[in-house]
């Protein structure tokens, strides 16, 4: 077996430049928070609530508690 030492670091650099970091939604709606779903944070209704045709409500969360 032979190991390629130089090529793996070059390939890693290519992937690092092209990877997308998912943006964090500043606030999830109550439905998504309760179900632990990924909320897109759209107003007045997020995609999950719109798909289910339910009321989408946002409640501010105190940071640091």
UniProtKB/TrEMBL annotation:
CDD domains: GAL4. Keywords: Metal-binding, Nucleus, Transcription, Transcription regulation. Pfam families: Zn_clus. Residues 1-16 have a biased composition (Polar residues). Coiled coil: none annotated. PROSITE patterns: ZN2_CY6_FUNGAL_1, ZN2_CY6_FUNGAL_2. GO terms for cellular component: nucleus. SMART domains: GAL4. It is found in: Nucleus. One of its GO terms (molecular function) is DNA-binding transcription factor activity, RNA polymerase II-specific. Residues 28-58 form the Zn(2)-C6 fungal-type domain. Residues 1-21 are annotated as: Disordered. Its main location: nucleus. This is Zn(2)-C6 fungal-type domain-containing protein. It comes from Guyanagaster necrorhizus.
